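pls design
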């Protein structure tokens, strides 16, 4: 099955999977998206894979891991330093605007909106994280 074939298939459980998981529902609506956004905003410090080092730094601050510790530095360098992606799988790139991208985007429109919100929230949480970091110093 090609990616386009998969994207155009009727596999309902693969649509908007993050909104589904956050709402506990299989068939989700815009209202469920709003609820998912509120859940993420109220209960999570978010990280982004394209900002992995910063995300891990933030998580470490929140849970109180001392990043100056040599073992922690070594672990960070081995796993996320210089944009390493140790725990990732290769996937073919899908160009935005391609038929595959359009078909996937159409079926995952709520997840795309949720992702856009998470990117915004990542920036909004910067100040909160910095206040945590300052309190630990």
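designed seq:
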């Amino acid at each position: 099955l090609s990616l386009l074939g998969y994207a155009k298939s009727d596999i309902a459980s693969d649509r908007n999977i993050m909104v589904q998981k956050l709402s506990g529902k299989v068939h989700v609506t815009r209202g469920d998206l709003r609820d998912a956004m509120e859940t993420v905003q109220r209960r999570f410090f978010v990280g982004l894979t394209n900002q992995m080092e910063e995300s891990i730094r933030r998580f470490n601050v929140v849970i109180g891991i001392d990043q100056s510790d040599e073992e922690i530095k070594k672990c960070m360098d081995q796993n996320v330093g210089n944009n390493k992606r140790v725990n990732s799988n290769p996937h073919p790139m899908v160009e935005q605007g391609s038929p595959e991208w359009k078909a996937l985007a159409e079926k995952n429109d709520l997840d795309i909106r949720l992702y856009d919100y998470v990117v915004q929230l990542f920036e909004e949480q910067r100040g909160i994280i910095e206040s945590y970091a300052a309190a630990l110093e």
